[in-house]
Amino acid sequence: MVHSPFKGVIPALVTPFRDGAVDEAAFVALVERQIAAGVHGVVPVGTTGETSTLSHDEHKRVVELCVQTVKGRVPVIAGAGSNSTAEAIELAAHAKAVGADAALVVTPYYNRPSQEGLYRHYEAINDAVQLPVLVYNVPGRTCVDIANDTLARLAKLPNIVGIKDATGDLTRASLQRLQCGEDWVMLSGDDPTALGYMAHGGHGVISVTSNVAPEACATFINACIAGQWETALYWQDRLVRLHRALFLDASPSPTKFAMAHLGLCSPEVRLPIAPCSEAVKPAILEAMREAGLV
Question: Above 70 in pLDDT, residue 38?
Fold first, then answer.
């Protein structure tokens, strides 16, 4: 196992809203719930946190609030991605200034940079901010896929410490582990395939499902870390339909619907994300029942 604080189950936190504004009280309660359930870290203002529709002030406030709430109990990996390198540097610098433990930086979206452009993007962040950075590779959203060869180059930089891999490509994980070295942090960004990713040498998962079922997700990933694969498979079978159900509509609307059903926050999302469709709610509730949540 890699000697790093960035491992285990790490929820990609939703950002709760009420009447159009960030619901700070609900956010604090959600963070406390996750820590009480035994998660190993938290990620504010990632994709699931609707960072793309937060203002810069809101983004920074959520990171600050997260750090203040956590009080050092688990690592805080703050979302700091942008399709502008200068903006990503600004967000990473803010994360460091308020006490976050690392930054999660998505590959630049829309621009479709070359592999050399991707390398230089992360190199610039590495040089500008002395904070651990996790590369976030999610080509299904960004339309750019960072190659293992590029990651192997980045792994040589002191502040680029690992990856959140949301490709679901498990063969890539083994090859990346061999190319990037034993200190490279490998976190899955895809709940349904996290079991396989861990078996391929991964160190944890940045999880959407943990927003809804943190205890079960923590138990699952702890079993994986301990090599207790039969126990891990049991929890995989309980959770896999919930993993899928939370993406039956545009994320995070199904997750917020599920959390609202549990009385944790409002189901409110921001446009262009629409509220969870009535057509998929029965499947979400059934998946929650299978997971033992309702």
Answer: yes
DSSP 280: T
CATH number for the segment(s) 8-227: 3.20.20.70
The confidence score (pLDDT) of residue 2 equals 56
Q: Which two tokens stand for residue 287?
A: 């998946």
Could you tell me the residue ranges of all domains in the chain? 8-227
Quick one: average pLDDT of 133-162? 97
Active site residues: 136, 164
SS3 (DSSP) at 188: strand
Strand 17-18, strand 21-22: pairing? antiparallel
Write phi, then psi, for 8 (nearest 5 degrees).
90, -160
pTM: 0.97
Q: Which residues pair with 102 in a beta bridge?
A: 77
CA-CA distances (angstroms) from residue 136 to 109, 151, 158, 191, 238?
A: 11, 11, 17, 15, 27
Looking at residue 1, what is its pLDDT? 45
Contact (Cβ atoms closer than 8 angstroms) between residue 44 and residue 211: no
**Alpha-carbon span 19 to 268, nearest angstrom:** 8
Q: How far apart are CA 11 and CA 9, in angstroms?
A: 6
Polymer length of the chain: 294
Rounded alpha-carbon distances, angstroms, from residue 225 to 74, 158, 214: 17, 26, 16
